[in-house]
Every structure is written in C-alpha cells, then in structure tokens.
C-alpha cells in the first residue's frame, strides 16, 4: 500500500481545492481523470518528485476537494479553471501531464494558453475525439439523464454506487487497483451531497466532439508525450496515433494495458514520464519528431 501524501488546500473559484505538493524543482502538475483523485498518480508522485516539484490536485468536485454545486462543469469553464488553479498556486509555467478527463481539459488548456505549458503529456484520453460507440451511448445517456430534472433522481439514488462498482470491477481484476482503492474513488457516492455532485457534473458534461481540439493539434509546439494503454475499449490506441501524428513535437509510448494505465503499469508510465521530462523544454522548428516506443 502506497503511503498517503499530505494534502494542502487552496481556494479556486470560491471552493476549496486540495492537492499534493512534494519535491523541488520545476513545477510538474499531474491532472487525474474520472472518477479518480490525485491518488491515481500515487505510484508516480514519489519518483517524479526526486527531480521536480510535483503538484497533484484533486480536481474540483473529486477526491477531497469541495463538491460545490455553484461550480460550473461546462468544458470552457473547466479548461479555464486550470489556469485559475495555477494562479492560486502562483504557478506561471508548468510541465502538465493529464489522464482521461484531465487530458480532455489539458489539451484544451495547452491550445488556449501555450505560454503556460513547458511540456505536455497525455494518457488515455478522449482528447480530440470522443468515445467508441458503446461508451459514447452510455455516457451520453448519463449526461442526458442529468439534464432532465424528472430523470435526475436515477443518478442520485443510492444504487448508483453499486452500478459503478460493478462497472469498474474489471479494473480490479486486471490489477489497476484493489477493492480498497476502488471504494475510495467511489466513497463520495455514499452521501447525498456526493450523488448530487455526480449528477451536477454530468449535467455540464458533453460527449460531443469538439472540432477545435483536432483542428488545433498542429499548434501544440511544446515537447509532448502521448502515453497510452493499448487495450482500452473506450479510447483506443488509434486516438494516440492521431495525436502523435498531428502534434509536431510529439512522441508516442505504447504500453500493453488498459484505461487506468498509470495504476496498472506504474513502472512503465513512470519511466515514460521521466523520459519526457528529460526532453529539452525549448524546441526549434527542426526538433519536432515522431517516434514510437513499445512497453510490453
């Protein structure tokens, strides 16, 4: 069991955001996905903190951060909230590594605010596309239920935790996390406040493609690493290949594993991130390259 990290707190958009802050050096922000917390990076934080100041937030509404229903969860607000978090933490320019929902937001952020991102890494995220058809339909249905007051009680019922535990049990079986870690991710659904937040989040979330993200890939000029578990049925490896082909300074790391790749294959992900951080932060026009490495 990885020892828990101390959590600090700061106020962002009027709500408490809690975060890990360890190590010294250039700031490295690790942004988790759904339904996780900073603990998604628990295997990487220690090793990476030996050469960087690692900041791993519980994104607003998740983990130990506040679930404030006044916070908007629409895409544009969430992307800009990353910048407001940086401001609250007095961070000017960072290395930014993001997974899943965090990667979806992070891609938008690096396109809007390139001057604030020194290097960018993205792991198993819908990013510039959306989910494969079965998951698109599932998440689209959840979002539609959340937007309809008469149907929203389906998402705020106590049974929603059981549904999620069953759905995520496959990641216990493949070794991404144990039952204790899964319970920790889903504990917020045990409370009425947590279930209300859950519905609130999905009411603001959209599964539709945002075409500006694909259109802007060529403008991402910072050193980028696309790190992907290639057994992800919701977000397949071809999405990673798209990103690596379109982002001028991208390399591609293929890891044999599923969606929660930094939990399932922690050593491989840590090594990939360490290699990414060794890349020069300033690139020239001739430095852009596309390479693929495979970790199996």
Strand content: 15-25%
Could you report the average pLDDT, rounded to the nearest whole number?
Answer: 94
- The ordered H/E elements are EEEHEHEHEHHHHHHEHEHHE
Helix content: 40-55%
Q: Which blocks of ≥5 consecutive residues have pLDDT under 50? A: 284-291
Q: Based on CA inertia axes, which overall geometry fits?
A: globular
Total domain units: 1
Write structural notes for this entry.
With 296 residues, the protein is α/β, with parallel strands linked by helices. It has one domain (8-130, 209-295): Alpha/Beta hydrolase fold, catalytic domain (Rossmann fold, 3-Layer(aba) Sandwich), CATH 3.40.50.1820. 41% of the residues lie in helices and 18% in strands. The protein has 12 helices and 9 strands. The chain has helices spanning 42-48, 75-88, 101-112, 133-147, 153-156, 159-173, 179-186, 192-204, 211-215, 237-246, 261-264, 266-278; strands at residues 8-12, 15-22, 27-31, 53-57, 94-99, 117-123, 224-229, 250-255, 292-295. The protein has a 9-stranded mixed sheet, sandwiched between helices. The radius of gyration is 18 Å and the shape is globular. The two termini are 24 Å apart.
Secondary structure layout:
Elements: E1 8-12, E2 15-22, E3 27-31, H1 42-48, E4 53-57, H2 75-88, E5 94-99, H3 101-112, E6 117-123, H4 133-147, H5 153-156, H6 159-173, H7 179-186, H8 192-204, H9 211-215, E7 224-229, H10 237-246, E8 250-255, H11 261-264, H12 266-278, E9 292-295
Parallel strand pairs: 3-4, 3-5, 5-6, 6-7, 7-8, 8-9
Antiparallel strand pairs: 1-2, 2-4
Helix pairs in contact: 1-12, 2-3, 4-8, 6-7
